[in-house]
Amino acid sequence: MWISGRPGVSMSRIAIVFCSLSFIFLIWSYGIPHYSASSRYPGPGEKVVDPEEYTPGQFFARTTTTTESSFGAATGIPKPRPETSGEEDPEILEPTPTPVVIPPAVPSTKSCLTAKGADDIMVVLKTSATEIYDKLPEHLLTLFQCTPHYAIFSDLDGVVAGHKVYDALENITAETRAKNKEFQYYDKIQEYGAEGQQLADLKGEGTKNLDKWKFLPMVYRAYRMQPYAKFFVFIEADTSLSWTNLLQWTTRLDSRIPIYAGAPSNIGSIRFAQRGGGLLISNAAAKLYATAYDQKYVGKWENRTATECCGDVMVAIALAEAHVEFYSAFPLLQGETPATLDWTKRHWCAPVVSWHHMSPNEIDILWNFQQAWTKKNGWQTPYLIKNAFSEFVSPRLSPSRSNWDNLSQDHKITRPADDEALGEGTAWYKLSDADKNSTLSFDYCKATCASYADCLQWRYKTGECALSKVIKLGRRVTGENAESKSGWFVERIEKLTRSWEPCEEPSWSFNQ
């Protein structure tokens, strides 16, 4: 039978063509996976995120739950099971397909949000409502643009520029609040906050005394917020954190080991991580701490806090009772600024992860330096203390600088004000003529420094000459100290720092 008068087209041939097309359609629809960023199947324990609703850097905007395949298995923590109505979990037949990514024609700098290890870190900043508008904005503009997981704790619950701020003190027991007078200031902060008053007017010792009560609840709540983070880093509002160096450091550590580390300090027999340099706590340590907290906080630790000077000391006490040992992370985590740090051979080849006592301006300057560093060197090359020296200190050293205190202090010579004290039998009498003359002028002080082979810098003010064999930058001084004048032997310093080279490998080590 012929159709449409065209030879060669029969019903059987039409059937064959139709079947072939149907088979191709089925293969295309079900046999070949299609990939797109918006239509990818969610993996186990993963919640689909609407790209339009996700705000990078905002803690609660990130809805993806870390799966066992990333670091849940590595830490030994079981994968969370979704709540069900009694039915068995659906069987996952095939792994989630990986999207096809076409590389850009021109390589681009890797985002700080997606750099290796970024998703494993929880950064926690502690501040006060009385200073939050002075110190928090700089972190929102810099560090928190790069941290997928972070939280801000204060003594007043609220929102700052769209960022949630948690009240670390809201669960302190009523009995403790009644017994400790500093909580009168806490109540005043709540009152001012409710009335929209100027919280900065409450600055003072009373509000500072509240600070120690924030630490233990803050560490506990941070772990409960992000229990699958590999590491928790706790900083102050005046701490500058190097994001690239922190990531490179923590990727070298094992979060399954209980680690509590920081810049070491001592009060009596208690060795602890000084808060300003930052506290690093591993997942294993945080888990042990949370278990002990549930058992001991209300009955023991909260009362102990009242008797201790500081919150960072209480953290050390609590972690010790949770069987977590302290590790010194100096100089990676340290409590100085580029102006006050001792620039020595001991530090020269170590990466620097934190600085303390930093103004918002200084935090911004360091952040811009770090951004330029990663753009030039990538995210796998740390900047070392020697690089910070070349950037922030070396260009500012000179033979003479007025209105400046370079913190020379190894050998201080002070001319007695009382002429009778200049006589025999006094400490002044035992000094050499050169040392005595050093108190007469800046040039005499410089000459005395030159007479010592290891003297690198000096500072003079009327009747006083201070010498140092350690390099320090110092700061401009005003008021009654404005007469201070400082100098450095630049050639000696250049020769000394050259002898500390080369740095074959960055020194990431820390110890107990």
UniProtKB/TrEMBL annotation:
Membrane-topology descriptor: Single-pass type II membrane protein
Task: Keyword check for Signal, yes or no.
Answer: no
Cellular component GO terms held in the UniProt record? membrane
Q: Extract the ranges annotated as region (Disordered).
A: 67-100
Keyword list, A-Z: Membrane, Signal-anchor, Transmembrane, Transmembrane helix
Localization in the cell: Membrane
In the record, the note on similarity to other proteins reads: Belongs to the glycosyltransferase 31 family. Beta3-Gal-T subfamily.
Give the protein's recorded name: Glycosyltransferase family 31 protein
